[in-house]
Amino acid sequence: MKTPISLTARLSLLFAGSAACVLLFAGLLFERAANNRFLEHDLEELDGKMALIHEVLGKITSVDAIAALPTRLHDTMTGHPGIAITVATGDGRVLFTVGQSAVVTHLLQGTEIDKPQPVTWSLDKHSYRIVANRVALGIPASQPAKVAIAFDISGDQQFMVEFREFLWFGMVLAALAMGWLAWVAVRQGLSPLNKVSAMMVNISAQRLDMPVPIEGVPRELKELVSSFNTMLARLDDSFRRLSEFSSDIAHELRTPIQNLLVQTEVTLTGECDVIEYRTNLQSNLEEFGRLSRMISDMLFLAKADNRLLVLHRESIDLHSEVTRLFEFYEALASERGIKLTQRGAATAYADRLMLQRAISNLLSNAIRFTPEGRALEVTLGETADHQAMIAVANQGTAIPAEHLPRIFDRLYRVDASRQDGHNENVGLGLAITRSIVEMHKGTISVESGNEWTRFTINLPTDRDGGSAGSPVIGLAA
Ligand SMILES: Nc1ncnc2c1ncn2[C@@H]1O[C@H](COP(=O)(O)OP(=O)(O)OP(=O)(O)O)[C@@H](O)[C@H]1O
Ligand SMILES: [Mg+2]
Hints:
Largest sheet: 5 strands, antiparallel
Oligomer: single chain
Order of helices and strands: HHEEHEEEHHHHEHEEHEEHEE
CATH class of the largest domain: Alpha Beta
Helix content: 40-55%
CATH topology of the largest domain: Heat Shock Protein 90
Number of domains: 3
Strand content: 15-25%
Bound molecules: adenosine-5'-triphosphate, magnesium ion
Strand order of the largest sheet: 2-1-5-4-3
CATH superfamily of the largest domain: Histidine kinase-like ATPase, C-terminal domain
Number of strands: 12
Radius of gyration: 50 Å
């Protein structure tokens, strides 16, 4: 892959480029202004001369006076080395000429006569601006004379050529100087970024709890550093949870496997009758069942994390779904004298099996934690933002507030004393429920007060509210 150009180089180039453009623009403006000034000056000169000749010719009132014309013109037109003038009669007789002969010859041809603007003409590396007019003599009914004036503008043009060379050379030099200055300035300006980056480099998995100090960081970088610190805090949290999860898994697996080992060793070494063998195998079977459930729950969570599950969404009438689940839990509930009730109605757009699993996890918890003879109620409804709501509330000891933020964590159980590996429940149910809800782009929350606990799930009600057809997740375990 092509390495992107460094920020310093990019900014220096941009700065130098912009400065060169500004200089070029200024140079072109100046060149135009100088050209205009030269032109104006030439026009003034040419018009002045032409007016003078007009005056002289106007004063010639007789044919005899024509003879004195060269002398009169010569007095006024001398002292201008770059000028050439011809005055001829209407039928081509030359009355007066001054200037370089080749230019005079050209002027005598008179092709540029009476043009509104001066004409430019070049000869032998010299350029001339020419005006040629018909000028009336003072002799009544005589043909007007032809007057042509050429003004050498090679000096001006040479100046412009040198000016252009100077402009280009100066511009290249200025652009290089600007580039270098910009490079120094940008490096200096970006030095806080390097400091921040040096601090970030020192952060390792073991030092995630040490944020980059925000004091002394320039205003523009404060947001970046603060986002980085927020990310660091999240990473730290995830890292901590991950390592706790690994040690919890090891703990959860070690105890039952230890039990299985001991029990199998005892069975093999001792003299047992068939009934004892059967009892031991039965107990092993239960332990294996629990292990197997735990492994498949963890596999489900791992697949959900990696988006390997596929959702098969459909519109689900939550009332009939909850009724079916109540039928399943009816025996267990009535055994403990717990009354299951539901009210309200709602429709969710979800994967049926997944949804059953999520609600079922909440119901089994609720039944487990409802004291005998007390009530459990499921409320269905629609939220203000048109999501389906399923709330599972039960009476019973409240969950202490400090446990609520972690209740959905994997392997997290409120009663730590029961985390000895013998417990039937490993603490994955709520994690799975949350994972299912999040796959559906829904939300789950918990509240617990005096003698009651309520879990609330909000789910999209239709295709638009969810992510049907998008990345996909679904039941496989
Ligand atoms: N309705 C409830 N009332 C009181 N505490 C609850 C309730 N539901 C969950 N809890 C607490 O939250 C913990 C986590 O529940 P979760 O369903 O994740 O795990 P579990 O039920 O212990 O195990 P598993 O669901 O994997 O069999 C429970 O151990 C319990 O302490
Ligand atoms: Mg549970």
